[in-house]
Amino acid sequence: MGCSSAPMAFGSLAKGNSGQRLHCIYGLSAVPPTAMAESDTPIEPLALNYLIRLFTSQAGCDNGNFKKPFIAFVLGGPGSGKGTQCNKIASNFGFTHLSAGDLLRQEISSGSEKGESILETIKEGRIVPSEITVELIRKAMKMSNAKRVLIDGFPRCEENRIAFERIMGSEPDVVVFFDCPVDEMIKRLLGRNQGRVDDNIETIKKRLKVFESLNIPVVDYYSSKGKVHKVIVPFCFPKWNYFFIFSVNCLLLLQSGPIEDS
Ligand SMILES: Nc1ncnc2c1ncn2[C@@H]1O[C@H](COP(=O)(O)OP(=O)(O)OP(=O)(O)O)[C@@H](O)[C@H]1O
Ligand SMILES: O=c1ccn([C@@H]2O[C@H](COP(=O)(O)O)[C@@H](O)[C@H]2O)c(=O)[nH]1
């Protein structure tokens, strides 16, 4: 099976560990790396964009009359690549990317009183109180007036989830979950080199514990509702990145409607 087998990218409905319904985005995962010939040509982003527009125009969407924004929660452990992939999706496919962590770091940089306690919480790898984070997300969504939003790194716990759904009055349309081995996450975080106060081994260990104990239950909750689309990382070959982006975008755009020409 070659790389240009687009239908494989749509994935299938599979059973998760605890019997939840999981959509496996990475349909090509069934193909062993050796089965991919070196001569296979990666699909370029522009071609993907074209294909995705074609698919969405045939997907029986609502012709752009959106009543509420399309919301995708993007979850995964620290360093699993959420931010990196969200940036690509946002810049290539017309999504607004809201990183909860970035919003909190902006609040710290603003020098506000709240910023001081947020900084202490982040240094400890703990979770900032829901009312602070949900309010930052609510404001950012309102300001962007976006029709499709990727909310990256939120909700971090069930309490976050419940607060968001109560305050915003809506659930996410989909949840994308980056499933990455712990060793790989640690390696990436230690190599990130962006001067983050939490990219040190002590805080990373705490963040991983919080991820396992508090973030995974959120993934399980949405899995039980059939909303989770799991992306398996890391890729074996750099060029497979195209298929991740392709898969995620097909999925999100199929469910969110065609991009409007502005
Ligand atoms: N597919 C990849 N292969 C190798 N390195 C990657 C890949 N994706 C991201 N990285 C690198 O790993 C580091 C962490 O990535 P990123 O910041 O996107 O993760 P994240 O899930 O958003 O992390 P956090 O939750 O801590 O903000 C970055 O230095 C990034 O460049
Ligand atoms: O919803 C959120 C998001 C983040 N935090 C805190 O920020 C850090 C860093 O977040 P990243 O998403 O990795 O950038 C995280 O460890 C938490 O301490 C949060 O509390 N709530």
UniProtKB/TrEMBL annotation:
The gene is gb27343. PANTHER family: NUCLEOTIDE KINASE. It catalyses: UMP + ATP = UDP + ADP. The lineage of its organism: Eukaryota, Viridiplantae, Streptophyta, Embryophyta, Tracheophyta. Coiled coil: none annotated. This is adenylate kinase. Its EC number is 2.7.4.3. GO terms for biological process: 'de novo' pyrimidine nucleobase biosynthetic process; pyrimidine nucleotide biosynthetic process. Keywords: ATP-binding, Cytoplasm, Kinase, Nucleotide-binding, Nucleus, Pyrimidine biosynthesis, Transferase. Belongs to the adenylate kinase family. It comes from Eleusine coracana subsp. coracana. One of its GO terms (molecular function) is ATP binding. InterPro entries: Adenylat/UMP-CMP_kin (IPR000850), Adenylat_kinase_CS (IPR033690), P-loop_NTPase (IPR027417), UMP_CMP_kinase (IPR006266).
